[in-house]
Design goal:
GO terms for molecular function: DNA-binding transcription factor activity. By secondary structure, the protein is an alpha+beta fold. Helices cover 45% and strands 17% of the residues. A four-stranded antiparallel sheet has the order 3-4-6-5, with helices on one face. Strands 1-2 form a two-stranded antiparallel ribbon.
Amino acid sequence: MNTPRPLMEYLKQHGPSTIKELMAHLGLSETAVRHQLHSLEKSGWLAREQRREGKGRPATVYRLTQASEGLFPKRYPELLDAVLAEAEREGLIERLLDGVAESMAAELRRKLQGLEGPAKLRALLTYMDYGDMLGTLEETPAGWELKAYNCLYYATGQRFEPVCDLPPKVITKATGLPAERPFCQRDGHRACHFLIAKRPL
């Protein structure tokens, strides 16, 4: 989707702004500015709020939302690779990822309180961005099989294999159910497979 880039860049640099301020900076008519604002607001990248400026009615201002951050270039993958490469050189990568898994699982345990059985597992996978994984979950006699056709850690896992064990570690730590990764996209499979047992540890 094409985005009104100059308007977004102005809001990113100057913060919440009125329609008049945007008109003056962009050299656009009020109708054109309102059209762009409506499009961004509908997409969830913009929000409106009231700003009081002296006496009289507060002015309506428009600001970018947290969701819009994904539209601006970031270098998170390069930073992550640098951190993991240094951890690997220092022999700390396994311990680092164990700590990450425990932190993620602790947050998930709080969210899963009161849930049991398949409902708990499905909620867990939803919180782990199961939908973005293009995942399928099937019950088997021994437990469940999760297939992730869009592994969220694929690019990083190509360089650092221990990263591929993060999902089963998080599942185990969050639910107490043993989980393992028998197949992986990094090995040429179409999906990452995770087996989750029904019997707790």
